[in-house]
From TrEMBL:
Pfam families: DNA_alkylation (PF08713). Signal peptide: none annotated. This is DNA alkylation repair enzyme.
Length: 238
């Protein structure tokens, strides 16, 4: 059943292929992926129509966890990047609406560690993890999921590390500060740009809620953090 949806998406995307935009998109991601050349608004419009038609034909009024668990790996096995975006955004929508459970983390991990680049990883890490933590914790961040983030923060996979660092990005006053400090301190000397950028982003976002805490944190760890992390964290600090 899911294979029919994948086929329909591929057919519709192919009909709107734009070679010039596809080439520039591939260049933008340093040649890592190929594209149909569909910009985000058109891609979402086409995907929304195709998915709605498929749901109607199969008596599926809403997307649900069981379908997404099959759809993401099916789309991620395709070559074109736009199909990866569809899979990630379908999962993200369910996570943000609180329509998936703890066991969906396996799907998230697949989405983060497969075809990995910031553009799909951050659909999970920056956009979806905070509401997912809250939904699975009945209004407060899920301890069970945070315990998994403890493992991701020290993973050999840099994208899992980035996701752990960013997972509390939108939690504001519900942020587990001990965990945030631990995740950042254990990655402070990491050499990868995307990990360093994530550290700065997480601190900059929390500074909107508690700038004093971030200033104190930076004073404590400034000698360990990269210049990039410090600059990003300090952008809106007076």
């Amino acid at each position: 059943m899911v294979s029919e949806l994948v086929t329909a998406l591929k057919r519709s995307f192919s009909e709107h292929r734009n070679g010039a935009d596809a080439a520039s998109m591939t260049k933008y991601v340093k040649g890592k992926f190929v594209f149909y050349g569909l910009k985000a608004p058109l891609r979402r419009q086409i995907a929304g129509a195709v998915i709605a038609s498929w749901q109607s034909a199969h008596g599926q009024p809403d997307m649900e966890q069981g379908i997404a668990q099959k759809l993401l790996p099916a789309l991620y096995s395709c070559q074109e990047r736009e199909l990866h975006y569809v899979g990630a955004e379908v999962c993200s929508g369910l996570m943000r609406k609180g329509l998936v459970g703890h066991d969906f983390l396996d799907v998230v991990k697949l989405g983060v560690t497969t075809n990995s680049w910031w553009d799909t990883v951050d659909i999970f890490a920056a956009s979806s993890m905070s509401p997912y933590l809250l939904a699975c914790g009945d209004g407060s961040p899920s301890t069970r999921l945070l315990q998994e983030m403890d493992k991701w923060a020290v993973s050999n996979n840099l994208w899992l590390r980035r996701t752990a660092i960013l997972c509390q990005l939108k939690l504001k006053g519900q942020t587990d500060l001990k965990r945030l400090e631990r995740y950042i301190s254990c990655n402070a000397s990491h050499k990868d740009f995307f990990v360093r950028k994530a550290i700065g982003w997480a601190l900059r976002e929390y500074a909107k809620h508690d700038p004093k805490w971030v200033k104190t944190f930076l004073a404590k760890y400034k000698s360990e953090l990269s210049g990039l992390s410090v600059r990003e964290a300090s952008l809106h600090l007076s």
